[in-house]
């Protein structure tokens, strides 16, 4: 029985442990079938609308290619392509889309918009990123971790998230730890820990909060980081974050602290590791940085970094999600 059929995926905790494990296994199945060019199309005739209020590279590409591979059609709506919230209510837009499409992806700012779209469209809705959660990313991260350490169960894997943990990645990793038993260390100054209402979902022994880097990274399997600043942030915010978080940069010194020669790096991208982007150049110049911001350039380009594997895995996990939500029968794998 396919228990994910017609479900929405607004946050990772919309699924239970068995459903998450099934999606990871199904992702591996689709990944192999695509590589072998033996993929069967389960979504012929399905129509999916992709609403993007925030810019995207990996999320948009992963949804579009996943849908295409499975025979579905997609419509991309940018902020300038829809009247939603401005000239037309979310209620009205969602009802219209629910009559025309089989599923809706939304990438934007507020979770209450997602919930309204789900409520009024009455079709599966998937969260491509909001300010609070990023479940499609963490699904791909869980796939990446289990692929990298095939002899370990999720409960035996330890991931350290370091830096600015008051964000959607850390929040969703906490959900993953609560559901799957993943061992998770949150490492940052206390004022950068996730908000209290997120931290207090459950108090489990597999979750550690610490500002002590050496303690937090010791013997971990993965170190995960994300950008601290974005183009929309004010310069004063940049200055404060860089001052308070620069000691938490993922670099060779930190890797040595793990005492694990096989430790790997996770990063959901984009990364400010060099001067080859407009924002990267601006920050390196303004703060006289020589070797990256949240991650050093040499570590970013080392074999330790799995960020590009994570990016590819977005395609396979999103494909597994779409098929499970829109195809009634459970795929035998």
UniProtKB/TrEMBL annotation:
Aspartate/ornithine carbamoyltransferase carbamoyl-P binding domain sequence ranges: 7-147
Main location (coarse class): cytoplasm
Enzyme class: transferase
SUPFAM superfamilies, A to Z: Aspartate/ornithine carbamoyltransferase
Protein name: Ornithine carbamoyltransferase
Aspartate/ornithine carbamoyltransferase Asp/Orn-binding domain location: 155-324
Family under the similarity heading: Belongs to the aspartate/ornithine carbamoyltransferase superfamily.
EC number: 2.1.3.3
NCBIfam families per UniProt: orni_carb_tr
């Amino acid at each position: 029985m396919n228990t994910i059929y017609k479900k929405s995926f607004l946050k990772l905790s919309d699924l239970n442990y068995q459903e998450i494990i099934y999606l990871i296994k199904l992702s591996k199945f689709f990944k192999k079938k695509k590589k072998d060019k033996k993929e069967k199309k389960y979504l012929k005739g399905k129509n999916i609308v992709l609403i993007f209020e925030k810019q995207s590279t990996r999320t948009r590409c992963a949804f579009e290619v996943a849908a295409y591979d499975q025979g579905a059609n997609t419509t991309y709506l940018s902020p300038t392509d829809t009247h939603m919230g401005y000239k037309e209510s979310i209620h009205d837009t969602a009802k219209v889309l629910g009559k025309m499409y089989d599923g809706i992806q939304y990438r934007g700012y507020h979770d209450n918009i997602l919930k309204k779209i789900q409520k009024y469209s009455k079709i599966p809705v998937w969260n491509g990123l909001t300010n609070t959660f990023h479940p499609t990313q963490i699904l791909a991260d869980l796939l990446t971790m289990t692929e990298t350490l095939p002899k370990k169960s999720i409960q035996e894997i330890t991931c350290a998230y370091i830096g600015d943990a008051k964000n959607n990645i850390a929040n969703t990793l906490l959900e993953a730890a609560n559901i799957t038993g993943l061992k998770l260390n949150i490492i940052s100054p206390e004022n950068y820990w996730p908000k209290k209402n997120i931290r207090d979902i459950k108090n489990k022994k597999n979750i550690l909060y610490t500002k002590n880097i050496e303690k937090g990274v010791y013997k971990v399997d993965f170190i995960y980081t994300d950008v601290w600043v974005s183009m929309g942030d004010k310069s004063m915010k940049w200055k404060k974050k860089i001052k308070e978080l620069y000691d938490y940069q993922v670099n060779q010194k930190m890797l040595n602290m793990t005492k694990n020669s096989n430790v790997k790096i996770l990063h959901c991208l984009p990364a400010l590791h060099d001067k080859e982007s407009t924002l990267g150049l601006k920050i390196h110049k303004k703060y006289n940085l020589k070797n990256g911001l949240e991650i050093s350039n040499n570590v970013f380009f080392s074999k330790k970094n799995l960020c590009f594997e994570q990016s590819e895995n977005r395609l396979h996990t999103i494909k597994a999600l779409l098929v499970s939500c829109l195809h009634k029968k459970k795929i035998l794998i």
